[in-house]
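Posting this for the archive.
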Amino acid sequence: MKVLLHICCGICALSVIERLQIEGHAVTGYFYNPNIHPQDEYKKRLEVAEKAAESYGIDLVEERYDRENWFLAVKGQENEPEGGGRCKVCYKMRLQKTYEYSRYHHFDLFTTTLTVGPMKEAAIINQIGRDIGEDRFICADFKKKDGFKRSIELAKEMELFRQDYCGCIYSLEEKYRREKK
């Protein structure tokens, strides 16, 4: 099956691409992350995603960095905690775009690396994916079966940049507040 894989970052992509290829899927990466802030961070994460794609011999599509629409989408949710309403809007925005691309370019299925992260609730992400793409969305909790651990091991072996916050400006501000304490 042809699978379009939304990639939130290259580190998370490593074990997911590996797993999907072992299952026999032809994977194409899709980097759509208008939430990542600042733009330098976006570029670093894109470079790691490109290295991950190259390492596994898959194509990587970079969607337009659409930061303005992301800010509009999460307006009013700026003070939500990590994992709250703002994140759900962000997941939906990215998965909707992934779904649309997958339909237009005739992919059989689509999924996301978002569930690899230990701070991400797979049930919420999977529900959003199902709501958008029904039976075309691969529901998975990619952190299971040591998925997150495997991604970290591979990233260390490949000496890849690893981010230290979710990606959006609000998670960056939250990180700075934690560091000050």
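The chain is about 50% helix and 10% strand. Residues 10 and 48 are 5 Å apart (CA to CA).
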